[in-house]
């Protein structure tokens, strides 16, 4: 990597923008729109210009850029390189073929002391010319930009009348190397290597390797998204699992036409393999950009809320966490399973709004070690993003130590802590007016609901969740409608901030059964009275004109 390819001093241009794009307000996780929207002339340029104007330290700083390999990635990477050059960035860190998972990007930002990063991904949304594209901005701590930053980027995008770009040559991404474009130094490196080194510090690879080389078949589904190359190196080359352990491991620009969302609906083939057959002991999948994880055992699905609780309860079995946990956090709609574990461990447990950015301050301040969301996201203080492969290795560490099956581990966990029956019902692609209508209708009625009967209990608190950040005291309001029942059950209704077609309504249901109760029911059955009561109260099926949810988790 000593050769530095240089090119002539690039000319700088300032290109006018006809008018601001009014729809550039980032959602739960960056700006996410259809690929077609991103291909409008000036659209991507406008958002990148706003980032480069607002992100602190661009002049003379280092920026990490990569993505999940979806359609539009190469164009965006080259565009950012040319615009970064025009904005006086000193160093740009790219990866071969532009492949960089969200957790690996978070690590690279921290390791290189970059001012931040730009991750080109719409995460679990489908990709391709007819799919979605997205731009996520991360800050110097490696985590998703806080609201203050995304609001400033949006405000800037609304005032732009031009963008600056250099006429520099394209950066070759097919191999590691160093390139000079004017004052900008561009480094292309292998995006997998450093990340796997980080994981090796946290988990006992010898122990996990022994398990994976024994007759203990595991299946990992890369969903033709970003984790394929990471997982193949990690499981098959480094840990010695048999070839073929990683399925769908080649990143494709349209994810093979699939929906790279690791849940029972979209990772259907893997689910069938584990839940209907006995050939595999363990199964896992990650999403488009590698930050989500689904964990399956033989005939056993692990609910993500439970997964966080299991990791917290068994943290001593993972090398990097054996000294104990400072605290834990979960997003508001995530079940309280981890709360019960935290109480027993005598550590603090925080409840944040949906979206990983809200964990950042707690992680930076050293107040939590583990955190997670019901949406298949789990992570820790090793980086500032959720981390799919990290979660898989954590599970493998526990299973290697405990020498039991996933189903046995779950049964034992509930026996000890009680079980939080949990389900999320998604109504996707709902007409926007209808969705907002029914949501606002329920919100307007919240203060009248206290004391009303609901399923087998009654409503103790009904509110719209707001969060006061314990570190910087910032207030975030209107984060989801909550019904807290007298018996500890909860019902939550939220509108998604990541969908791109119409509106997505999410209904979250949770009911606690103590360890002496019935722990082996089907969750949909255990929650059936609450599901009916929620529909009755909020008029979901009539309001959405949908007979049933599109996805049930
Ligand atoms: C969803 C999930 C949320 C997650 C977000 C980003 O948001 O519910 O928990 O943080 O996606 O995940 P929403 O607003 O659609 O409910 V990812 O993997 O897209 O970075
Ligand atoms: Co993701």
Sum up the structure in keywords.
single chain, binds cobalt (II) ion, 8-stranded mixed sheet, Alpha-D-Glucose-1,6-Bisphosphate, Chain A, domain 3, 7-stranded antiparallel sheet, TATA-Binding Protein, binds alpha-D-glucose-1-phosphate-6-vanadate, 32% helix, 28 strands, alpha/beta, 18 helices, 25% strand, 553 residues
Explain how this protein is built.
- It is globular, with a radius of gyration of 23 Å.
- β23 (467-468) and β24 form a beta hairpin.
- The longest helix is centred in the last third of the chain and has 15 residues, at 388-402.
- It has 18 helices and 28 strands.
- α2 crosses α3.
- The chain has 553 residues and is an alpha/beta fold.
- An 8-stranded mixed β-sheet has the order 1-9-10-5-4-6-7-3, with helices on both faces. A 7-stranded antiparallel β-sheet has the order 21-22-25-26-27-20-28.
- The N and C termini lie far apart (47 Å).
- The relative contact order is 0.11.
- The chain folds into 3 domains: 3-191, Alpha-D-Glucose-1,6-Bisphosphate, Chain A, domain 3 (3-Layer(aba) Sandwich), CATH 3.40.120; 195-417, Alpha-D-Glucose-1,6-Bisphosphate, subunit A, domain 3 (Alpha-D-Glucose-1,6-Bisphosphate, Chain A, domain 3), CATH 3.40.120; 419-552, TATA-Binding Protein, CATH 3.30.310.50.
- The mean pLDDT is 94.
- Alpha-D-glucose-1-phosphate-6-vanadate is lined by residues 28-29, 123-124, 287, 291-292, 331, 354-356, 373, 375, 377, 496-498, 506.
